[in-house]
Every structure is written in structure tokens, then in C-alpha cells.
Design goal:
The structure is a homodimer. In chain A, helix 1 links the parallel strand 1 and strand 2. Chain A is globular. The first copy, chain A, has about 80 residues and is α+β, with helices and mostly antiparallel strands. A 4-stranded mixed β-sheet of chain A has the order 2-1-3-4, covered by helices on one side. Chain A contains 2 helices and 4 strands, in the order βαβαββ. The interface between A and B is medium-sized, with 27 and 27 residues.
Chain lengths: ~80, ~80
Amino acid sequence: MKTKAIFYHAGCPVCVAAERNVASALDPQRFELEVVHLGQEKGRVSEAERTGVKSVPALVLDNQAYHINFGASLDVLK
Amino acid sequence: MKTKAIFYHAGCPVCVAAERNVASALDPQRFELEVVHLGQEKGRVSEAERTGVKSVPALVLDNQAYHINFGASLDVLK
């Protein structure tokens, strides 16, 4: 059975592009990935909070929340 | 060809156990994962810095650094 993985974000385009790299790098054999835009799906903020999400972007693996901070690449600013 | 993924950490046992979950969740078909304990391999700190790593644990995917902050589960403190 696949483990549920949820990637929560709030839409910042540069950040999302970068941080989705982490989510999309997960093994599809083992994880079922769902991507949730909390800005558009506000009803799911409380669900995210219950799992321990304090900020976005965050990746929840097996009910544990990992906050991902992308050290922005200068390349995206050029 | 597989993409290089490097997980840098510094040995905090609880954190490492949690954060390695992210590293080990990567798709092995696409990523070749290396785990580096910077406390034991100090010679690699400058390499990590050059990739943009500011703190550990961090995951470098395709030369981009992602800092992973695990919101510690209360379960591990019980």
C-alpha cells in the first residue's frame, strides 16, 4: 500500500517551481502524492495544521510534517 | 542517468531519523542518494556551502539546496 504524501503550498510561482522538485522527486512506487494549494483550498488549512504544518511550503510524509525552505537560487532572479 | 542527491546532516539522532525519511523517500530510479555527516566529514562543509547549504539537515537535488526543518513530533519526546 502506498504512503500518502501531501505537498502544501500557497502559490508563490518561483518557490513552487523549486519546491515541487522535492515533492516530485518522491518514489512513485511508494508514495501517492497530492499537491494542495492552501490559498485556493482554504478549507484544508485546519487539516494541515493538525498534521503539524506551521508554514508553507511543507511536505507531509506519513503524517509527519517537514517544512522545506528553498535557499533561492540566483539563477531564477537573472 | 541518475540525478545526484545529497543529504547533509550533523548527527542529532532524533532529527536524523526523521529527516532521513525525506531522503529515503526519493525515487531510487531517478536519484542516486549520498548521505553526508558533516560533523564527521568536515572537509565537505565548504562543498556544501558552495551548493547553497546554510544549515543542516539539507537535501541537495540537482545542485539546488533545500533546507528541511522537521517540526518535531511530540511523540519522540514522550
